[in-house]
Write the structure tokens for this entry.
Amino acid sequence: MTGLKRILTIFMVAGCLISRGKSQQQCSNGFELDRASGQCLAPVPAPAPGFPAAPRTAICRFGYQMSEGNQCVDIDECATESHQCNPTQICINTEGGYTCSCTEGYWLLEGQCIDIDECRYGYCQQLCANVPGSYSCTCNPGFILNEDGRSCQDVNECTTDNPCVQNCINTYGSFLCRCDPGYELETDGISCTDMDECSFSEFLCQHECANQPGSFYCFCPPGYVLLDDTRSCQEINECEIGNHTCTLQQTCFNIQGGFKCLDPIRCEEPYLQISDHHCMCPAENPACRDQPFNIIYRDMDIVSGRSIPTDIFQMQATTRYPGAYYIFQIKSGNEGREFYMRQTGPISATLVMTRPVKGPRDIQLDLEMITVNTVINFRGSSVIRLRIYVSQYPF
């Protein structure tokens, strides 16, 4: 019997020595072995002359019994319960004997059937639960058990349930959710919410940013157009394209984000009109004695909130007289002290903006150049009447 020490049982049956499990047999006490049938037969004395021989008596070896047809047939010890197997074992009949064994899931140890812990030997790919005589395999979340009952197969959640609101990416044993551009994943790892790109930075668009589902767009104020494939605004020159409301008598002056309709310059007494932008007071006119000899009109535009300090206008004498020197100053219009004149040479000066100026706003400055000639004891002045148009936006 497997796993157990064989016990040699010796029987003496009718003068025969039989060893269970052995194929050899010897007969004693004068019995003879019939090699054809394997039986021990009683010796037959020699018959007397003239008489027939007596029949020989047959005896079956151990594990066999005589049938009604005088044949030795195997005894089924398991069916007759004449075996000596332990209650935890099962009996398996063999030719001339029997074997004690264990059912599947047990092994024979010192005559007892002990449960085999299949989990210990890695019968399952993932999760294993041992039960008496068997085992049970299960899989981790995200896997299903294959038909072999032992191995596990990944579940593609994206094709089965697709728990993601937008995009699903299958991974080994799980899945990942991803959002479309312009959306961000919520803390539940499944849902997507619109991303407010406009809240990230005030510099995302040059002017204004408008959020929309999954994206955003930039727009410009009136007087500007959004450049293609950019977030910047380009100023429209209404005067150049004719998109203005100025009359024929007026002059269209383009500014950032709009335009100005400038009326013709009209020189007041005692000034005379020299050109469209020049008024002159004749020296021979007594009324011009205390007035600037020349008033020249100039127009310019600047953006709102321009960085400071910054040079915005240059002024210089057109003629230099021997013995003369020049003084530059802001005669009027600078009540807020946003500007000052910085002399840059003997006959020139620059208008400097020293404080931020916010628009929309129109400013008029009278920039005066005083000419002093000590040789001929002369003092006179000329004025540039500078009109500054400050736009509403910093671009």
User: Anything to note?
Assistant: The chain has three helices and 35 strands. Residues 1-25 have pLDDT under 50 and may be disordered. The first strand starts at residue 10 and ends at 13. The chain has five domains: 10-43+56-111, 157-194, 196-235, 238-263, 272-390.
